[in-house]
């Protein structure tokens, strides 16, 4: 391990597929150790994971970090948003967690919107119009389909809350992750009593919402984690808010993240209230806001198309008039939870490479369509689009985003931005700094800038037309997968 200039901190990213841990020098941002361990997720419309896997994976990832983890002075957990974790009186899971991409709760989400005032009222109260991913819809689904699980529940947590509580013994969350539940009022910055009463959720079951920069506890004795006694624990946050911290994001800079899901977001000083539901009005982890649009189908969907075609994911070809909407898992943006993939415009001379390029185009189309809604009206449209996530290193992804956005694209060289953002939050506990300022001091957003190219408006218009024409098919419920 290299000699560190300052205290060491740990940042954790517990995502859909795995948990990663980074040990970081708080003075320089140098990663001195890292570890990773996988999770399993069920397939089909129901996506579930046993939360105990997350804890086991965290322990395994930290053990891989060796002595550096033991020397860390503070830790923070960034995690996948929205997931519903139900715990019994002993703190054990009542059932597997319902994850963000579990779309079975779509009917409950629609009913919640209708029964509590409609989209405009929801946007004003909660900052977002809930879809199937939101935790409130998942609780309503559970109450309808598994009432015995609801009766057995003594605590309700989000994924990052669960790990933080296992570290400290205290039930806490942060404003950003709370804002993705549907039961947190963004205007009042408090749990919404009307929503909770409507879905039959006792507020006593919910974690306390910690303030940005607050120490929520210290690591308890007697755990498998290799931390020293008294290691400080930060509030943690959701994965997108953690990545925003990891980039040191300032208001007006757009981010497009290419991972299991695709997201586009920016920090704003104005509270978002989009009644169309396209933009979720999340809080950020600092005290500002993080308007965000999310798609369910991104890198995994495109990789699946590549596998079906027997192609490497980079084997795209230009040309042709084929359109592919890769909605393999339903879709969130646009809100089509029962959709499946749609292929249109296939010809004798269509090549496999053109089909693969069409999958990339279809995946990026919805994200770019939401970009103008995410950014404030006075944002500089010439600011480079920060491209992050697992797909950001792929040439085909980079060129597709450049061609369809018409914007310059910057690809930060730092990886694991969620874990880095959590580490910056942990470092802020020690130094008293704004975590985003910590990340800027670490220069995490540095990377090559790809110049803007002419925007391919014809392809965007063609995809929009197919999407509109296919709406009746995409909205049709076809049963469980």
From TrEMBL:
InterPro entries xrefs: ATPase_NBD (IPR043129), Carb_kinase_FGGY (IPR000577), Carb_kinase_FGGY_CS (IPR018483), FGGY_C (IPR018485), FGGY_Carb_Kinase (IPR050406), FGGY_N (IPR018484), Xylulokinase (IPR006000)
Keyword Nucleus: no
Carbohydrate kinase FGGY C-terminal domain location: 312-427
EC number annotated for this UniProt entry: 2.7.1.17
UniProt-annotated binding residues for substrate: 81-82
Transcription in keyword set: no
Active site, per annotation: 239 (proton acceptor)
Molecular-function GO term, any one: ATP binding
Record domain Carbohydrate kinase FGGY N-terminal: where: 9-246
An example Gene Ontology biological process: D-xylose metabolic process
Pfam families given in the database record: FGGY_C, FGGY_N
Residue spans crossing the bilayer: none
Site residues, Important for activity: 13
Catalytic activity: D-xylulose + ATP = D-xylulose 5-phosphate + ADP + H(+)
Record keywords, A-Z: ATP-binding, Carbohydrate metabolism, Kinase, Nucleotide-binding, Transferase, Xylose metabolism
Coiled-coil portions: none
HAMAP family: XylB
Recorded family membership: Belongs to the FGGY kinase family.
Described function: Catalyzes the phosphorylation of D-xylulose to D-xylulose 5-phosphate.
NCBIfam families the record matches: XylB (TIGR01312)
Protein's name according to its UniProt entry: Xylulose kinase
């Amino acid at each position: 391990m290299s000699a560190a200039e300052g205290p060491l901190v740990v940042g954790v990213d517990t995502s859909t597929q795995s948990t990663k841990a980074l040990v970081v020098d708080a003075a320089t941002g140098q990663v001195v150790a890292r570890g990773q361990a996988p999770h399993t997720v069920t397939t089909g419309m129901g996506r579930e994971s046993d939360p105990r896997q997350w804890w086991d994976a965290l322990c395994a990832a930290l053990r891989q970090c060796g002595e550096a983890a033991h020397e860390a002075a503070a830790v923070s957990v960034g995690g996948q948003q929205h997931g519903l974790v139900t715990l019994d009186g002993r703190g054990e899971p009542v059932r597997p967690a319902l994850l963000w991409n579990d779309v079975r709760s779509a009917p409950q989400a629609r009913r919640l919107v209708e029964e509590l005032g409609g989209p405009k009222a929801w946007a004003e109260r909660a900052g977002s119009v809930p879809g199937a991913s939101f935790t409130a819809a998942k609780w309503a689904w559970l109450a309808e389909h598994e009432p015995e699980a609801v009766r057995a529940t003594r605590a309700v947590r989000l994924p990052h809350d669960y790990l933080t509580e296992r570290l400290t013994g205290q039930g806490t969350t942060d404003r950003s992750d709370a804002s993705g539940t549907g039961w947190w009022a963004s205007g009042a910055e408090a749990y919404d009593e009307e929503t909770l009463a409507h879905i039959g959720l006792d507020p006593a079951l919910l974690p306390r919402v910690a303030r940005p920069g607050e120490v929520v506890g210290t690591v308890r004795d007697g755990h498998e984690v290799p931390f020293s006694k008294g290691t400080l624990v930060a509030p943690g946050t959701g994965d997108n808010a953690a990545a925003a911290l990891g980039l040191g994001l300032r208001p007006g800079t757009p981010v497009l993240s290419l991972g299991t899901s695709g997201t586009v977001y920016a920090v704003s000083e104005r509270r978002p209230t989009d009644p169309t539901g396209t933009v979720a009005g999340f809080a950020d982890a600092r005290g500002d806001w993080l308007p965000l649009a999310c798609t369910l189908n991104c890198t995994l969907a495109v990789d699946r198309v590549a596998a079906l075609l027997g192609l490497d994911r980079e084997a795209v070809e230009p040309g042709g008039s084929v359109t592919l909407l890769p909605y393999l898992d339903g879709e969130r943006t646009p809100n089509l939870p029962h959709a499946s993939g749609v292929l249109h415009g296939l010809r004798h001379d269509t090549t496999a490479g053109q089909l693969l390029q069409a999958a990339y185009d279809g995946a990026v189309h919805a994200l770019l369509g939401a970009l103008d809604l995410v950014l404030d009206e006075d944002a500089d449209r010439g600011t480079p689009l920060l491209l992050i996530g697992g797909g950001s290193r792929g040439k085909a992804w980079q060129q597709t985003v450049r061609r369809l956005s018409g914007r310059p694209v910057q690809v930060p060289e730092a990886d694991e931005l969620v874990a880095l953002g959590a580490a910056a939050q942990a470092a802020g506990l020690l130094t008293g700094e704004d975590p985003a300022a910590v990340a800027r001091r670490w220069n995490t957003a540095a990377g090559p800038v790809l110049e803007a190219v002419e925007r391919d408006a014809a392809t965007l218009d063609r995809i929009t037309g197919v999407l509109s024409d296919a709406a009746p098919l995409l909205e049709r419920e076809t049963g469980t997968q």
